[in-house]
Write a structure and sequence with these properties.
By secondary structure, this protein is of the alpha/beta class. It has 15 helices and nine strands. A hairpin with a 2-residue loop joins strand 6 and strand 7.
């Protein structure tokens, strides 16, 4: 029997609608990408944007930070970037004769790691603890990050000269991999028209959700119901990824948990307080593509085969 929609989900509709509006104005003609980004935000899942330069990845990250009234930091990843440039470091204060911790850009609400695969594995690893546990350890001291901390990382899928591929352990920290793609004719024409006589500034975007409200929404998402038969459906799908001949490393238990959490966020955006098999299928592509290391030309087909290999529960 279908459950009733909770009041908390209903009351969130206006704020979430304003967030959609803000991001759709910023990233024209890409409503599905925007919806996945918001689902990632609500599920507290980090996002990998893999696409060509100039398609709006940085603009989207800035607009998201401003829309939630949060702090924004950007790391331009280069081969000479050091772990301390991300996490922060301790310096000796000559006045009080004590070491002081200088916070790095990771202490923000939205962190953009631009071209993350251009920095060394040692520096990439500085983000592992932050992404998994929302804390960093420097000089044996733990420093807690913001509860709404979110990483949006970008990488260019074409130019691989001088890059360091992300290891599977780090890819598994991301909830989704998204591609923005080129805009359609109408959206690109509107983009050109909007720039005439205007100076584009993402900082002018007004916040539409407070950080406290966002944290409340994230807690509501965690409580979205997932029935036993839907959970079993997820487990069977995960098992299918581990048996598929074209997949070297199947979905990890952490990956299944992330898939469930993103599905909960997807249900929340549809003003439901329960997850359906359709929610799981709708988010399968971005969730699986980031962690199954499939060739781009085979990705869609393999994921389709996985979904078709398991019977959908009633």
């Amino acid at each position: 029997m279908q459950q009733t929609i909770s009041n908390t989900v209903q009351t969130s509709n206006k704020s979430i609608g304003s967030l959609f509006s803000n991001l759709n104005k910023t990233l024209k003609g890409k409503p599905q990408v925007v919806e996945f980004v918001i689902a990632g935000l609500l599920s507290r899942g980090h996002i990998l944007l893999e696409d060509l330069p100039g398609l709006g990845k940085t603009t989207l990250a800035k607009a998201l930070a401003n829309s939630i009234g949060g702090s924004f930091s950007r790391i331009q990843c280069t081969p000479d970037l050091l772990p301390g440039d991300i996490t922060g470091f301790s310096i000796f204060n000559q006045k009080n004769r004590e070491f002081e911790f200088i916070k790095g850009p990771v202490f923000s609400d939205i962190l953009l790691a631009d071209e993350i695969n251009r920095t060394t594995p040692r520096t990439q690893s500085a983000l592992l603890e932050a992404m998994a546990e929302r804390q960093v350890t420097v000089d044996n001291y733990k420093h807690i990050l913001n509860p709404t901390f979110l990483v949006i990382a970008t990488q260019n899928p074409v130019d691989h000269h001088g890059t360091y591929p992300l290891p599977e352990a780090q890819l598994d920290r991301f909830s989704m991999k998204l591609s923005i793609g080129y805009p359609d004719f109408k959206s690109e024409s509107e983009l050109l028209a909007s720039e005439i006589g205007n100076f584009k500034d993402e900082n002018l975007i007004e916040p539409c959700i407070s950080l406290n409200e966002l944290e409340s929404f994230q807690n509501q998402v965690k409580n979205i119901s997932v029935s036993e038969n839907v959970r079993n459906y997820l487990v069977e799908l995960a098992g299918s990824t581990r048996k598929h001949p074209q997949i070297n490393l199947g979905l990890s238990p952490r990956g299944v948990l992330i898939w469930q959490r993103v599905s909960q966020a997807w249900a929340f955006l549809r003003q439901r307080n329960f997850v359906t098999p359709d929610d799981i299928q709708q988010v399968a592509q971005p969730v699986l593509s980031v962690r199954l290391s499939l060739a781009p030309e085979n990705e869609a087909l393999v994921i389709k085969q996985i979904l078709e290999s398991v019977s959908v529960p009633n």
